[in-house]
Amino acid sequence: MPAYDGESLVKFEAWVRGTLNKPFYAVGPLLPSEYGTAQISLPIASLGDDSEIKSFLGSMKLKHGNKSMLFISFGTLFWPKVQDQLEDLVDTLIEEQFPFLLCHAAPSALLPAALLEKLKISGIGMASRWAPQQSILTHPATGWFLTHCGHGGITEALASGIPMICWPFMGDQPIAAMHLLHNLNVAFHLLQVRTGTGLQPLYGGEVPVGTRVAMCAEFKQTLKDCRGEVGNEKRRNAERMRVELASAWVVGGSSAQAIEEFMATRLT
């Protein structure tokens, strides 16, 4: 996706076409045709709590306004290894009265009964083992996405114009987080949740403390920034990305042209 990959895609294309002498077709994002221009409807039938989720989203929009809610999802595989981290995040969200929807789909994501009861009593939080991510990200109530930085989630968030809070775990996730933070400026990055070798000094000079106090302070400051001018700037950048990603598929757009070029080689 040229809007997301930028100069790296340009260089890669030059290498493929020049050095390898091969054709190159950059196509993306691969999402429903109406994505980014309309809300994706909740599934009519599913295995999850879709009716409860729909009701919760509507309630948060009514009580707190558009773009007020944080959607939290680490995908179907990842989850914080230290349970205190998740519980401290929930406590901070409740303390700051920041509405949130927590998806805990990973097998290791076991939420204590006391935590679930706390969510229920709070009136601003909900937890679900299943969540229709595209529907949630395109809902008017959703304003932020806390993610492990999987490529699918990043694509869906940016195509919805939703800025992110990055909590990467492994693989290419930390690299993606840095790209979102430094190159695109559409995200915040949580440092104090790091553990083990992740506590080593970062290339940019930051040194994670890794204590519970530092982590809670970072949670609180990040939520404050989400609601301030720093967050507004990241939202504007995310909205610009949404427009650019959508334009790739209009007539004459980069992805539309790439598909036409590819099909021309197969039909002649």
UniProtKB/TrEMBL annotation:
<keyword id="KW-0808">Transferase</keyword>
<protein>
    <submittedName>
        <fullName>Uncharacterized protein</fullName>
    </submittedName>
</protein>
<dbReference type="InterPro" id="IPR002213">
    <property type="entry name" value="UDP_glucos_trans"/>
</dbReference>
<dbReference type="Pfam" id="PF00201">
    <property type="entry name" value="UDPGT"/>
</dbReference>
<dbReference type="GO" id="GO:0008194">
    <property type="term" value="F:UDP-glycosyltransferase activity"/>
</dbReference>
